[in-house]
Amino acid sequence: MKKLAVALLVVVALCPAVFAEDIALPEPEKTGGIGVVDAVAARQSARDFVDGEVTMQQLSNLLWVAGGVNREDGKLTFATAMNTQDMIIYAFTKTAVYRYNPQGHTVTVIAEGDYRKLTGGQAFVAKALVDLLYIQDTSKWPEGGRATPSEILNCGFAHAGLSMQNVYLYAASLGWGARTRMNFDREGLTKLLGLTDKHNFTLMQCFGPKP
Ligand SMILES: Cc1cc2nc3c(=O)[nH]c(=O)nc-3n(C[C@H](O)[C@H](O)[C@H](O)COP(=O)(O)O)c2cc1C
């Protein structure tokens, strides 16, 4: 036991960056907002956003809505086929790029700095408070399972869509904007995020206050 503790201390001392990168998000605010039917009635894609710096509370609320754990059994705010939970949600902000870890409700800092432009060429993308990028991790699917490669890919888009509708309704509830988008700098993002051939690009979504 003593030896294990010493070994752990050595690892922590040698790799401080690894242990420093995970940030616990504040508890998400799970009540409030307008009624769901009112939010559906107000849902639309915004055409422009106000640039700004997201607070950790805003990020926590958004990521929980987009794909956090909403039950004691660890299942999420959106459905996934066979509960594969294969969607990695990245949050691009003015100051950093984060990967969301729904189990534990933490974020991992992938890069410091403003990389919002990489998620799309349209001018408003670089201004949205948060750009969410939805990358499917196909390694979450069982090898040799029933699903064909194209069915797995289709499920990735369905999962992204289900999560993004949560975000659309949340934005409507706040009186803020959201916009689903395709077309991003795949090469730049692959390098920045360290993606492999097991990762599929699906869609992204801008979120934040509107002018
Ligand atoms: C799969 C998908 C891809 C989209 N891609 C883009 C895009 O690349 N750029 C853009 O400005 N809007 C994009 N949109 C937003 C649509 O243009 C928008 O949803 C459509 O005009 C209908 O408007 P509404 O969402 O306000 O009802 C996309 C929407 C979806 C569902």
Would you kindly provide a written description of the structure presented here, covering whatever features stand out?
This protein is of the alpha+beta class and 211 residues long. It has a single domain (22-208), classed as NADH Oxidase. Helices cover 34% and strands 21% of the residues. The protein has helices at residues 2-14, 16-20, 36-42, 56-67, 149-174, 186-193, and strands spanning 22-24, 87-92, 96-101, 106-112, 130-137, 177-181, 199-208. A seven-stranded antiparallel beta sheet has the order 1-4-3-2-5-7-6. A hairpin with a 4-residue loop joins strand 3 (96-101) and strand 4 (106-112). Helix 3 crosses helix 5 (149-174) and helix 4 packs across helix 5 (149-174). The protein is globular, with a radius of gyration of 18 Å. The N and C termini lie far apart (58 Å). The relative contact order is 0.20. Residues 10-19 have low confidence and may be disordered. Bound molecules: flavin mononucleotide. Residues 44-45, 122, 179-183, 203 line the site of flavin mononucleotide (FMN).
